[in-house]
Prior knowledge:
The chain is an alpha+beta fold. The protein folds into 2 domains: 3-74, 3-Layer(aba) Sandwich (Glutaredoxin); 84-231, Up-down Bundle (Glutathione S-transferase Yfyf (Class Pi), Chain A, domain 2). It has helices spanning 19-31, 63-74, 84-111, 113-124, 129-150, 157-175, 188-201, 208-214, 217-231, and strands at residues 3-7, 35-39, 52-55, 58-61. It has a 4-stranded mixed β-sheet with strand order 2-1-3-4, with helices on one face. The longest helix is centred in the middle third of the chain and has 28 residues, at 84-111.
Amino acid sequence: xxxxxxxxxxxxxxxxxxxxxxxxxxxxxxxxxxxxxxxxxxxxxxxxxxxxxxxxxxxxxxxxxxxxxxxxxxxxxxxxxxxxxxxxxxxxxxxxxxxxxxxxxxxxxxxxxxxxxxxxxxxxxxxxxxxxxxxxxxxxxxxxxxxxxxxxxxxxxxxxxxxxxxxxxxxxxxxxxxxxxxxxxxxxxxxxxxxxxxxxxxxxxxxxxxxxxxxxxxxxxxxxxxxxxxxxxxx
Length: 235
Ligand SMILES: N[C@@H](CCC(=O)N[C@@H](CS)C(=O)NCC(=O)O)C(=O)O
């Protein structure tokens, strides 16, 4: 039975605007597993978020759980070659990306006016006219509340940007001249790293976060490398 990846619709030419959905799709491609995409407009999975995977009668929510479960089921542990210290570093970077940098991305897409004008246009273009007037505002209010709950959203714009730049600097310094984050071969961390860095730098919503990645030629080259390896020229 084919793995079903449930995710948001993607804009033309880009894998996905959701970095968590793109993380899972990148991992599936790095692992060489066949899958098919099912588009959901509104998440209806067990945690109320996307991505969700359906596989062999099981419904798995949350990118981290999805990757752990599929890696175990299909014998695709991309981290098998890592020692304990490397695993510890990979875990810390994974959390930096998923649990901190993500919120900066959310702020610059949904709250900052320049990003919001684009997000509104790109994400809600398919809605019929009356809904297009109200749904974006309601969705934005929800994101603002989430950002306040996390805490990063309580800071001024300049501070959010400064902290995102610190995260990106740490990623650039760790990557150095290596092709992948943990060395010569891709590991699970690369799925997160590309899902997020790609969305910061190459996605069709342009925010000031693009500039902070663009300041690191090794990260720009990394995004191009992962895009070519996982999605080819078309996406
Ligand atoms: N921890 C989750 C986070 C997933 C997540 O935040 N997904 C966002 C899209 S990037 C979502 O579906 N948000 C909908 C909402 O919060 O209502 C994971 O790793 O999959």
